[in-house]
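subagent[fold] <- orchestrator: predict structure for attached chain, return tokens only, no commentary.
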Amino acid sequence: MIRGLIEHVYEYLISKQVTHIPQHIAIIQDGNRRYAKKKGLATASGHRAGADRTEEVLEWAQELGIRHITLYTFSTENFSRSDEEVQNLFTLFKEKLSRISIDERVHKYGIRIQMIGDRDMLPEDLRGAVEQAEAATAHYDNFYLNMALAYGGRNEMLRATSKILNDIKNNKIKKEDITPDLFEENLYGKNVTLPPVDLIIRTGNECRTSNFLPWLANGHESAVYFCAPYWPMFRKLDMLRAIRVYSERQDMKKKRNCRT
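subagent[fold] -> orchestrator:
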């Protein structure tokens, strides 16, 4: 109880130091399996604890006015994990997505669900759950929850390049038509709203971005915040610390611009 009170006070103090709120935060949710091992739980329980924490984080984001959250939910490299773990994850994703369509909070706050990644790599039932959640929220534009499923940065760039080359070959476009906007459209699709990433957060004490959103993050020099807690242990305090890093960087940019 005392610790919770101290954290609450600290949250308040940090929030007063934040002068800029990022529009788009991308999160690499790392540490579910290590959390489960530390707690003596099955791996599936660690993933479920991480999914429950994700729901809390989305509430914090809504409270803070962060309009876009992109979650690195499942990478193309994750397919190399055991069949049992992959199947458990897909079942969990399907369960959560099915609930999203009828979640009162989603409709109350106008949250749009979007997926980025290779849909062809997903099983049919999970792909159907994704499409159902997208269709149920397609008319909202207050907040965006972007799920990176079957996602890989290099795979994303290769697929977009291949599509553009095919369009040139089939005389749909000319080489002169290639622009950053056209390339981005082929990355995510015409109907996906995905602005540049302002801040990347990675949990689990790993100091790398794992090629996450290279076009929108690396290409726009987003701020990066690495923290020690495993994803199921991630706190609002940790999120505010990350936002403070972004805010401080924005203040520094403003000072540099004033000098020039």
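orchestrator: received. Logging for downstream: Residues 57 and 235 are 8 Å apart (CA to CA). The mean pLDDT is 91.
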